[in-house]
Predict the 3D structure of the following.
Amino acid sequence: MINSNSIAAFQAPEPAILAPFFPGYEIDSLIATGGMGAVYKALQLSLDRPVAIKILRPEFGQDASFRANFEAEAKAMARLNHPSLIGVYDFGEVAGMLFIIMEFVQGQTLYHSAHGLAIATDTAANIVAGICLGLAHAHENGILHRDIKPGNILLDPHAQPKIGDFGLARPIDAAHEAGEAIFGTPHYTAPEVLQYPHQVDARADIFSVGVVLHELLTGRLPASDLRPASVICGCDARFDAIIRRATHPLPDLRYSSAADMAKDLHVFCAGVPTSAAATAKTVGPRGPSAARPIPASQPAKGPTRKSSGNTAIMLCLGGGVVAAVAYLGFSRAFHTNTPATIPLTAPASPPPQRSTPPPAVMDHPSEPTHTVPLPVPAAAHIEPVASAPEVLAANTPAVAPEPEPQPTPPAPTFDVPGFLDLARDVMRQKASPFVTASQKGIEGNYNEFERQITYRVHLLDKYRKVTIGALVDAAFEKWRAAGKRLPSDLDLLEGKPDTPTPRGSSGHSGDPERDFYDKVTGIHAKFLAKQVVLEHDLDASLLKLASSYIFGLTKQIERLTAPNAAPAVALLRAEISETQNRPLYFANLMRGINPNAPQPPPVEPTAPAEN
């Protein structure tokens, strides 16, 4: 089992100490570190190209399961070659440490660039189209990502997206590994990942991309505001159809491929109807926000954006940030003095006159917005439509006075309870065969106990068969209600006055009631011992799963990079500590028992008593 306390104390080797193990590289500097390992900037001497070298602490290399997953992850990424994917050049092991050599990318994660702020619609569309094309390439090569979110998307100095963190990647046709869904991220995870994990395919990634698009347009997650994006931020209503189709609860009603979604996003920017708008009737309810084409003769209504303190907000893409920030989710962010920028808001053109007010109800009054003429991402390598009319607002500054600055909204905190519920549900699925088998054994043990006691009742005389039989039936009813588990203390004759054993008796008083009680006590001891053995065996089986649970929590801690993530990290570390330090905590979670409720003292297994 990997110890989280030792992970937290990891010290990355100095570049000079690491350099002899990588003779083909000139290691420049340590640029990111975390509990799982560290990332260094280096120069590959043979090709004179910058690379990022990620090393993992030795403990991970000693875990056979982790080594297998790491190798599969590296091979999965190495098979991919696309401008929207972070490249992998090599992997292996040196000095007991696993390593992977990756493409060095200047930039910052989309999470750090735009989390909590709305982005101009054309910029958001082009970024997400690039993400879709990268995923399409991965899917065509048989690889699912399974954790698409802003923290795993890097933007290079030209605002082109690059997808990282293929730590959850696996071949599409590979067998599902029980418990793998624990590493997903709440709110971005498709419903079938949790409900039908054996049936997950590329459409689960498309669901996540739809959530990202909604978040970029509105600054909010769909779960936090159920209104369509056009109602929240005033963007073109055709985005609603694209998002609705991508995030439909039923995979069959989503886009069949990420490339199709990318095409709709580019076609939207070109100003012609999207296929999502054409199929909106089949993927969601009709209403005021349903997608509809905008006539070419009328300019599109510009999006209204929440003020964040400066209406000329720019995304700063630090030149020293490597792909490893998106790949591992390390907690450090890096910036340089040569940022490239993209606008967060699109300028608003005067909307056409309407006889009725628009259906959107904004949280704040509309305010003028400005943009800075800065590099904007290209249309994700898709050929533009030649005759498409231009419908997006022109890139001209608004003439209204500058609005008063408003405080930047804090980034949403991580939903720790939601993540723990997900993680526990996933682990319970993995524990279910052990729990079911144990429960079957315990019920069989109880049924045989009840059969033998009932037989003893039938041996009593008629009067005692009625009186003692009533007490026995009441005890049986109580034990059945408790899940057919035998109590440690036998209260079979509860309420019945004790019959004293005559003095000088050698163990049998001659009293039928006392003889019956002595027999029942011996039978109870024998079957209780069997029950305790079954429960201890179950605990041992469940505790073997605890290392996977702890690893999943540790990996999530590595991904919490927001400035306000400290409380969430503390809660996850507390859960790890409980799992490590209280042996029955995890076992009771897997049984569906509240681990913090008062528990009876444990019963140690003993040799069954002879009948």
User: Anything to note?
Assistant: The chain has three domains: 4-103, 117-351+362-397, 417-494+509-591. The first strand starts at residue 25 and ends at 33. The chain is about 40% helix and 10% strand. The radius of gyration is 32 Å.
